[in-house]
Write a structure and sequence with these properties.
There is one protein chain. By secondary structure, this protein is mainly alpha-helical. It has three helices and no strands. The protein is flat.
Length: 33
């Protein structure tokens, strides 16, 4: 799930999600490109 799919969310909220889904986000980035 890229940040584009997240929609209009506060930057701090996105940052928290990034911290929580750090490893998962990296894997998704590799799959999604």
């Amino acid at each position: 799930m890229c940040r584009r799919a997240v929609g209009p969310r506060p930057a701090h909220a996105v940052a928290l999600v990034d911290l929580e889904l750090d490893g998962t986000r990296e894997q998704l980035n590799e799959v999604v490109g």
